[in-house]
Amino acid sequence: MTSSARLSYHAVAAAGGGLALLSLGWWWLIFSKVVEADYLTVRQAVTCIAGASDLCALAQALCTNDHLYGVRWYAPEAFWAAASILVAGVLLSARPARA
User: Fold this and answer.
1) What global pTM score does this model have?
2) In angstroms, rounded to a whole number, what is the distance separating the alpha carbons of residues 87 and 81?
3) 53 Cβ partners below 8 Å, 6+ apart?
4) 48 SS3 class
5) Are 30 and 73 in contact (CB under 8 A)?
6) Which of 33-59 are b and which e, b meaning 16 or more Cβ less than 10 Å from the residue's Cβ?
7) More confident residue, 6 or 40
8) 3-state secondary structure of 12
9) Phi and psi at residue 33, to the nearest 5°
10) How far, in Å, are 17, 30, 49, 68 from residue 45 at the CA level?
11) HEC states along 65-80?
12) Chain segment 75-99, per-residue pLDDT in tens
């Protein structure tokens, strides 16, 4: 495996990590307001990072319009896509080089 291939695998892992941080920021943008308004506890809101439950949907429906850029919903698929890219990059970059 060439060093440029390994570097590109590291870039994939870094991109996945960056996207994961962005998706967590998106989650926090929405659910910090939900927790602040006492619709959910932090523990309940954390479950909404990776899944969409009725409780998460209800909390998002109760959001007010004072979010940055008017964003009032969160998609857990963004977190899963980012996590998949991150894991793929880490696994590919951790493979031993073939002779």
Assistant:
1) 0.80
2) 10
3) 47
4) coil
5) yes
6) bbbeeebbeeebbeebbeeeeeebeeb
7) 40
8) helix
9) -70, -35
10) 21, 10, 7, 19
11) CCCHHHCCCCCHHHHH
12) 999 999 999 999 999 998 887 766 5
